[in-house]
Amino acid sequence: MSDAAIDLFERHGVHGTTVDDIAHAAGISQRTFFRYYPTKEHALFVDDEGFGAVMRRTVAEIREGAPVVSALEAGWLLLFDDFDRRPEEHRRALRVRRLIQNEPSLLALALANDAEHADELTAAAVEAAGADADVLIARAVVAAVTTTIRLAFDEWARRAEEGTPSSARGIYLQLRRGLATYAAELGRPPSS
Questions:
Q1: How many Å apart are CA 56 and CA 52, to the nearest integer?
Q2: pLDDT band for position 192 (50/70/90)?
Q3: Are 93 and 159 in contact (CB under 8 A)?
Q4: Cα–chain-centroid distance for residue 55?
Q5: Which of 22, 31, 133, 156 has its CA 20 to 30 A from that of 190?
Q6: Taking a C-beta distance cutoff of 8 angstroms, is the pair 96, 6 a contact?
Q7: What is the rounded CA–CA span in Å between residue 51 and residue 26?
Q8: Where are the alpha helices (DSSP H) in 17-134?
Q9: Which residues of 72-99 are buried (b: 16+ CB within 10 A; e: fewer)?
């Protein structure tokens, strides 16, 4: 269903594609489509079991007291390793990314998905911290890591579009090293 949605969205746009079009292209009924997705836009965002499993494990580790950054990074590094090992997924990732960038309804859904994941991770961090929890700091930590992840993926995509193969994991680690240099400055009081 997701592949059919991608093909149709690329050819006709989201507004020019109906659920019936997607169902027909996938060889299923509309009723079957709606068992899996509430809207045609959702069909683009395949529930990747690998991501879901890593997300559940990351949330569990944070709730059990693992340092938030370490748990987040461990999960994302597993996903990056898996992505780097599966070049057959790279073309699909680029197609989905282009659609999200060009279709406001898809961008809105992608941002809503990201916000939902950030909320879940923040809640786990706050729960783990207990009475001493600082929700704003927890949200900032989650946002810092996820923004760095997004930057790494965006850079991977930019290089892939140029025909320069790269490792998503390698780009993330490069960004992390650069950020670590600047993070030391955050421990010092502002100069003004």
A1: 6
A2: low
A3: no
A4: 10
A5: 133
A6: yes
A7: 24
A8: 19-26, 30-36, 49-63, 68-85, 90-102, 104-129
A9: bbebbbbbbebbbeeeeebeebebbbeb
Q: What totals of helices (H) and strands (E) does the chain contain, helices first?
A: 9, 0
End-to-end CA distance of the chain: 56
pLDDT confidence of 16, banded at 50, 70, 90?
A: very high
Least Cα distance to 41 among 77, 69, 66, 15 occurs for: 15
The mean per-residue pLDDT over the stretch 83-111 comes to 94
Q: For residue 184, which amino acid is it?
A: A
User: Is pLDDT larger for residue 184 or for residue 158?
Assistant: 158
Contacts of residue 118, defined as CB under 8 A and 6 or more positions apart, other chains included, come to 139, 142, 143, 146
Kindly report the number of other CB atoms within 10 A of residue 162's CB atom: 9
pLDDT value at residue 47: 63
Scanning the structure block, which residue is given the tokens 């941002």?
Answer: 111
- Structural domains present in the chain: 1-46 (1.10.10.60), 48-186 (1.10.357)
Question: What's the token pair of residue 185?
Answer: 């400055």
